[in-house]
Structure of VUT family protein:
Amino acid sequence: MTAGSRRRSGRRETGTGFVRVSVVALYVGCVVGANWLAEHVGAVGVGFGLHAAAAVYVAGPVLVVRDWVQRLAGLRISLVAIAVGTALSYVVAGPAVATASAVSFAVSEVLDAAVYSAAVRRRGVVVAVLCSGIVGVAVDSLLFPAIAFTSLALTPGHLLGKTYGVVAGTIVTALVRRRP
């Protein structure tokens, strides 16, 4: 099997236990951090006159980090990490934000996992990260503002802000994949 075919396969990559634990901790921390920002910072500008909850700058990259968790630790661990991050969000955010996060992260991250799993076998890791991230952005951007703020007014800003994070995360993924 060549390096290129290993990269395109859906197989979990091996790495040190430290790397796997670190990526899982990064994911859970991002979920909790996003909810803290949404609860305590409020709306921020994301460009082009649009605004979104401050969580948007963490919520976009977290979609990519979830793919890294799946790649390095497996689908089961990524689903457990989603549950842990969601549960811990109730500690740092009020019930409206934490519940909105629980619903939107659960739905968007499970769809993200399904798209990533299908795409990684056919198109490789980088394309899978981008495709699954875009699906996650769309779902999370529709659900979170509707549930947390009972409004879709921030949805365009959420779409844009989270897309920044997914594109940046995809670029980082591509650069890491190219390392010798």
Q: What stands out?
A: The first strand starts at residue 43 and ends at 47. The two ends are 17 Å apart (CA to CA). The chain has seven helices and two strands.
